[in-house]
Every structure is written in structure tokens, then in C-alpha cells.
Design goal:
With 197 residues, the protein is of the alpha/beta class. The chain is built from 8 helices and 7 strands, in the order H-E-H-E-H-E-E-H-E-E-H-H-E-H-H. The chain is globular and about 55 Å long.
Amino acid sequence: MYAQKLKSYEIILASNSPRRKQFFEEAGIPFTLKTFEVDEVFDPKLKGTEISDYLVKLKAKPFISIIKTNQIVVTADTIVWGDKLYLGKPRTKKEAVEMLTTLSAKEHQVITSVAFTQKKQQHIINEISKVRFKELSSEEIEYYVNNFEPMDKAGAYGIQEWIGTIGIENISGSYTNIVGLPMAQVVQSLIRLTSSI
């Protein structure tokens, strides 16, 4: 149903995430994929949404000079924020184990920022979901890290994978946000932007 509403615009999803691509497909949003390599480095003084907001602007920057009037570039970044610590994607299995040990028996925030970049404006939204893990045993953590795919996920876990099934006691907020994109808010923003221009 969104194809008709968005027919005058070319939506560019600037993400290599298979989960974000799948969400767009499932929502019926017509889009093309295009990404640029970006060095995701930020000031360590930044906290929470400041980090993800900065990174989505960074990811959108290469498009600024080439974007056309009828295009909307969607960039997104998801981080895990727990105990006042930034947890991005682990670089090693050891780091993944350390991250999950940090999250065990505690509540943390999953924060996603999404930038909608157009030729003359940029609109940014962010969504915060709260997740609480039970106390994870070292055996559970090792099993997950060795048998699933924590390396491409912020905080070293995917809620849709085994560890989410056996380890998460409760969540508050958008489920799709925890997976990687707050789809209800994304759809609302795209409809609002394309209706007001």
C-alpha cells in the first residue's frame, strides 16, 4: 500500500544490514540499495543517542553532493547502551563474550537513530527500547558466540536468535528497533515527509 503513497520519490536505503532490507521488503516500501564505506569513528565524549545521531549523519554525508530532488536517503545506526557504556559490534569472539557478560542480569537500552536526507533538508528520529537479560551462564554465552552470529550485531546479540529466546526476560518499546530498525516510526516519517513536500 505504501508504493502508491511514495511513488513520486526514490527511497534509497543506505545500509548493508540484511535485517533492515527485509523490514523494508516486508513493509512494502519500494527502495534501492546504495552504500558508501564510512569510518564509524566518533568522539568518546558522546553518549547514548548522541552517538547514533552522529553516525547516521556520517553515513548520509557521502550522498549530500549527489542526492536528487525526488530522492530520500535513509541511513540508520543501532547501538547498545548499558551501564553508561557504548557497545557496538564486537571485533572478536572474546569481545563478544565480554559484551554479553556485561549485559547479563541487567537492563540496557537499544538505541536506533534514522536519518532521512533530502536535497534541502535532513530529518532525524531516534527510538529507545529497553531490554533485560536474565543471568546468563558462561556456558550459554560461549554456546551462543560459537554457534550463532554475534559479530555483525550491536551488543553482540540478535534478539531474534537463540540467545533472545532463552535469555531475554522482558523488553519495553519497539521490537523491530531491537532487531535494527523502528519500522512503525520509519513508515510514519516517510509518509509525513513525502506528504509535506
